[in-house]
Design brief:
Elements: E1 5-6, H1 12-46, H2 52-80, H3 82-100, H4 106-131, H5 140-148, H6 150-167, H7 173-193, E2 200-201, H8 206-211, H9 222-225, H10 231-251, H11 255-261, H12 267-295, H13 301-316, E3 322-323, E4 326-327, H14 328-340, H15 346-352, H16 359-368, H17 370-373, H18 376-386, H19 389-393, H20 395-408
Parallel strand pairs: 1-2
Antiparallel strand pairs: 3-4
């Protein structure tokens, strides 16, 4: 058997092309995750027997699929290879989205959104663990954060494309087709440009490879993730990811409703506040990625605390205060989303917290947090029904500050980072 070569021996142009292919898949991972929200009213109008309440359940089925996909694909990638797993789930993402359009009844739409959800959760898990192995640890934060910023880019592209097809009277299904065909092309591209993890030693896996020269290659399992050396870190990451979904739902999930029903803004003002606020996520991810690579991953915990503070100020700020030509709430929302985007490094960071054979499992912990976070909307509604919406939404700043403090309890993985300690747990690998 030929010895494995190191990733540094793979031509830079191939590694950049591999990152680009993963990035294309990541864009459509984000696009297909939120497309169901955008086409919801069109589905209700086009298909008899599917109500608005039914379409809300499609997102639930998709989220359950994402949870299962993330947890199961970590095992699949560990046993059958990351490259082959990523190619299959990328193709599944595109293929299932196209097949989805063949059905018009609730049961089949729910089933297809569940299958698509599995591919989406699986994609994040495997893509992140492959992505961070292409280059040195000093650029991982920027690479994973830039990939995470594709969520904001996908929303912008979706809105622009929706406006375009509306102007030419094209069918709304065109939005779905865009989510189906490109992932298939990306999957084909991956065949040729992704380095095989069975033939190449990724950055950060050198020590594991050296120790396995005379031993069977470790596969990893969820049992090992919950074993004594890693249990506390695993559960902390799950809780941190779960708090992320709670904080997001308690603010972002209902902010337009809050602006309309509590602040009594008109649609145009709400649109301006929402769009300006969302822009903070885009450039914020790039800045926090650079910060994480220079000063360490844990420094980004300050971003969650900043988000908590800005959410608090948002609730008490007057409705009519202007900064220049912009409502103050738009600026506060922008800073809130800027702080929140510090979590864009989580995919790579969660992977770095564990040995190389457990990296896919570490990345899966982000979607694993849905075990906790999927109940967030129902918890908020429970509180809102017994108090009011504004009181319920105050849960957001509380959650973000708790999440930031929890992040500080986890190990720093970047050598030389501000919070790095020489005596780190064996689970932590740069």
């Amino acid at each position: 058997m030929n010895a494995k070569r190191h990733m540094s021996e793979v031509p830079m142009i191939q590694r950049v092309a591999a990152y680009f292919a993963i990035l294309v898949g990541y864009f459509f991972y984000c696009y297909n995750f939120v497309i169901i929200d955008y086409v919801r009213p069109y589905i209700v109008e086009a298909y008899d027997g599917i109500t608005l309440s039914d379409t809300a359940q499609f997102y639930t089925w998709q989220s359950i699929g994402a949870l299962i996909g993330a947890l199961s694909c970590a095992w699949v990638a560990s046993n059958f290879g990351k490259k082959s797993t990523l190619i299959v789930i990328t193709a599944l993402n595109g293929g299932a989205t196209i097949i989805n359009m063949l059905f018009t009844d609730y049961a089949m739409w729910a089933l297809m959104r569940f299958i698509i959800g599995m591919s989406l959760g699986g994609y994040f898990t495997v893509a992140v663990s492959l992505m961070i192995g292409l280059f040195t640890p000093t650029v991982r934060g920027k690479l994973t954060a830039f990939a995470s910023s594709m969520f904001s880019v996908a929303l912008m592209v979706m809105g622009a494309y929706a406006a375009f097809i509306s102007s030419i009277d094209a069918p709304w299904q065109s939005l779905m087709w865009v989510g189906g065909i490109p992932p298939l092309a990306a999957a084909i591209m991956m065949i040729f440009v992704l380095p095989s993890d069975k033939k190449v030693i990724a950055y950060g896996e050198e020590e594991a490879q050296a120790s396995s020269n005379n031993e069977p290659v470790k596969k990893g399992s969820w049992g090992e993730m919950l074993s004594k050396p890693y249990r506390l870190i695993t559960l902390s990451c799950l809780l941190l990811a779960g708090l992320n979904f709670y904080g997001y739902q308690f603010f972002s999930g209902f902010v337009t409703t809050y602006l309309k029903e509590v602040r009594h803004f008109d649609g145009a003002t709400i649109g301006v506040i929402f769009s300006i606020s969302a822009f903070g996520s885009l450039f914020g991810a790039w800045i926090w990625g650079a910060v994480a690579d220079k000063y360490g991953r844990k420094v980004n915990a300050f971003g969650l605390i900043l988000a908590g503070i800005m959410a608090s100020v948002f609730f008490v700020a007057p409705s009519n205060m202007m900064i220049g030509s912009l409502n103050m709430l738009a600026i506060l929302g922008l800073i809130y989303n800027f702080g929140l985007s510090s979590s864009a490094v989580w995919g790579g960071y969660f992977s770095e917290l564990f040995p190389s054979h457990l990296r896919s499992y570490g990345a899966a912990l982000f979607h694993g947090g849905r075990i906790i976070g999927m109940w967030a909307p129902m918890v908020l509604i429970f509180i809102q029904e017994r108090t009011n919406l504004e009181t319920a939404m105050w849960g957001s700043p509380i959650v973000w500050i708790i999440a930031g403090l929890l992040w500080f309890t986890l190990p720093e993985t970047l050598k030389g980072g501000i919070f790095y300690k020489e005596k780190t747990p064996k689970a932590v690998t740069a």
